[in-house]
Write a structure and sequence with these properties.
- The chain is 47% helix and 10% strand.
- It is of the alpha/beta class.
- The chain has two domains: 171 residues, 3-Layer(aba) Sandwich (Rossmann fold), CATH 3.40.50.1970; 191 residues, Dehydroquinate synthase-like - alpha domain (Dehydroquinate synthase-like, alpha domain, Up-down Bundle), CATH 1.20.1090.10.
- The strands form three sheets. A six-stranded parallel sheet has the order 1-10-5-4-2-3. Strands 6-9 form a two-stranded antiparallel sheet.
- It is globular, with a radius of gyration of 20 Å.
């Protein structure tokens, strides 16, 4: 068994106000700050940025206004911006896409190569600049992962830059930074956590240790959403812990069909990754259950029955209630109906064989067809 998590983690209300203190152990003299335009109007963020730029008057500041997940072309352009005034560390403040952009920039600052040359799983690269991640949404887990998602515009695929060198040196998670985010973004990000937890839990590559993180992450996120009190700091703390747990589990096991479907739909229709995953999660769980997989019962510690089958059914019924509460859509709003289910299933299967192979029961093109049919 192997388990890894390489980021110094700080979670607490108002911790972002002390970012300059968190940078001190890294001997940072001139940080490059990348922040998400979506948080620019937040008074609390403005206070955070002011504290940071007061402590580092020479900081190089970039506002990320790019809509959606970053492309390799956008990464190249931002890298050129920082090469003109090189920092000695990167601080990324924002949602998962901005944190991923920070990972790419940190790596390109010490590797003067085209961004596209790093796609996939690059080997032989120099260590990146120290990276500090500060999430403003809680769920993607980008703040503690080494994966960085980027879209290849030519191929129309998410490929990313995936190197363990990408691990942030420190993640500072302050729930207050997420309090002004639109509720739909908070929900989509939290659903991303659930996908990470469920996919990693069921993955054929899971370990006993990774499952501890899967279960804890699922329970914290699921019940925070069920309580429907996301305006409370306590709920945001649960989302923060759920995000870290889900990503730690995913990195140490593997994904499954839900995450694969989400990548395909996200690229094709520009659907936020968390929402795209949410659309498929419940139906993938139903499919696995009807094909004999009953271990989802372990995700449901409050079940009132001793039977794993009945406990799984109980959990799936709670999932149905959650989907109604959160108004998670089907595939219909994105142009899918009975007439093009087969095409979707075929294309997703061809593109995502790796994700499908991680499922705890055999998952084929016919399985994809069965799942997608329930969403149209």
């Amino acid at each position: 068994m192997n388990f890894f998590l390489s980021t110094d983690l700080v979670i607490g209300v108002n911790e972002a106000l002390k970012l300059h203190d968190h940078l001190a152990p890294l001997s940072v003299k001139k940080p490059g700050i990348i922040y998400d335009v979506n948080v620019a109007g937040s008074l609390y963020f403005q206070e955070v940025l002011k504290n940071l730029t007061t402590a580092f008057s020479n900081a190089v500041v970039y506002c990320n206004e790019f809509g959606g997940e970053p492309t390799y072309g956008h990464l190249e352009a931002v890298a050129e911006f920082f090469r003109n005034n090189p920092p000695d560390a990167i601080v990324a403040i924002g949602g998962g896409s901005t944190l991923d952009l920070g990972k790419g920039i940190a790596l390109l600052m010490t590797n003067n190569v085209p961004a596209l040359s790093l796609k996939g799983f690059p080997a032989g690269v120099s260590d990146p600049l120290p990276l500090v991640t500060v999430p403003t949404l809680l769920g993607s887990g980008a703040e503690v992962s080494f994966n960085a998602v980027f879209i290849d515009e030519v191929e129309g695929r998410k490929l990313g830059i995936n190197s363990r060198k990408n691990f942030p040196k420190k993640a500072v998670i302050d729930p207050r930074l997420s309090m002004t985010a639109p509720l739909e973004s908070v929900i989509a990000s939290a659903m991303d956590s659930l996908v990470h937890c469920v996919d990693s839990f069921g993955s054929i590559k899971h370990t006993a240790l990774s499952r501890i993180f899967s279960v804890e992450g699922f329970q914290r996120t699921f019940y925070a959403l069920r309580q429907n009190q996301l305006d409370r700091a306590e709920s945001r703390l649960d989302l923060a812990i759920g995000s870290v747990c889900g990503t730690a589990a995913l990195m140490n096991s593997g994904d499954g069909p839900t995450n694969g479907f989400a990548y395909y739909l996200g690229v094709k229709h520009h659907v936020p990754h968390g929402l795209a995953g949410a659309i498929f999660l419940k139906e993938v769980m139903h499919y696995n259950h009807t094909h004999g997989y009953e271990k989802y019962a372990l995700l449901n510690p409050m079940h009132s029955t001793p039977s794993p089958k009945e406990a799984t059914i109980e959990l799936l019924e709670e999932m149905d209630e959650l989907y109604r509460l959160l108004r998670i859509p089907s595939l219909v709003p994105y142009g899918y109906g009975k007439g093009n289910v087969a095409e979707f299933a075929r294309n997703a299967s061809e593109a995502l064989k790796g994700s499908f192979s991680g499922n705890p029961v055999e998952f084929t093109e016919e399985s994809a067809f069965a799942v997608v049919s329930q969403l149209t």
